[in-house]
């Protein structure tokens, strides 16, 4: 069975530890390009249930991120790695849950609530994705300072191991640093 270059990077990240995983996840996400919708495109779904939430919605025209979508083949290839991620941390007594992905369902809504209540980000359009205790921020902010502030705020939430900041200043599509959701046809 052959695997894609991104899948090989994800497997390498799973073995590299937290910092390596964070860097490789960022590289994979930053280089990802939105797939052009075609009739032959395989159906994709969020088969793993990765939390993907919109935090704010104040900048009309901000490109919506694609979110975590996987083909059936990708699900089969990633299932084993995802099942094992965080097991050694739990066995050593350093983590309270036996799998890193088990934290995500709790992290995402807490982060969403925290960023909404902060007040500094009310004029943004931001989505969050939580995978393996690593939060990815995607969307549009008003200033680079606001982007940095949101990144630092996200890192303060309990159980967040790292933050990948893919926020863009303004709503220009060419400034987008994440895969964009396909436009739905009427």
TrEMBL record:
Residues 103-171 form the BON domain. PROSITE patterns: BON. Residues 1-32 form the signal peptide. It holds the Pfam family BON. It comes from the Bacteria. Keywords: Signal. This is BON domain-containing protein. It comes from Simplicispira hankyongi.
């Amino acid at each position: 069975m052959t695997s894609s270059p991104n899948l090989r990077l994800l497997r390498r990240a799973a073995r590299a530890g937290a910092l390596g995983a964070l860097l490789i996840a960022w590289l994979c996400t930053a280089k990802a390009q939105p797939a052009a919708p075609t009739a032959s495109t395989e159906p994709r779904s969020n088969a793993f249930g990765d939390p993907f939430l919109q935090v704010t919605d104040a900048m009309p025209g901000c490109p919506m991120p694609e979110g975590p979508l996987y083909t059936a083949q990708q699900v089969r290839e990633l299932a084993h790695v995802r099942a094992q991620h965080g097991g050694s941390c739990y066995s050593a007594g350093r983590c309270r849950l036996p799998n890193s992905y088990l934290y995500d369902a709790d992290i995402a809504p807490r982060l969403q609530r925290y960023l909404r209540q902060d007040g500094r980000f009310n004029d943004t359009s931001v989505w969050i994705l939580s995978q393996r205790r690593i939060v990815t921020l995607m969307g549009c902010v008003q200033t680079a300072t606001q982007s940095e502030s949101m990144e630092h705020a996200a890192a303060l939430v309990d159980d967040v191991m790292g933050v990948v900041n893919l926020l863009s200043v303004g709503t220009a599509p060419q400034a987008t640093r994440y895969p964009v959701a396909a436009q739905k046809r009427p």
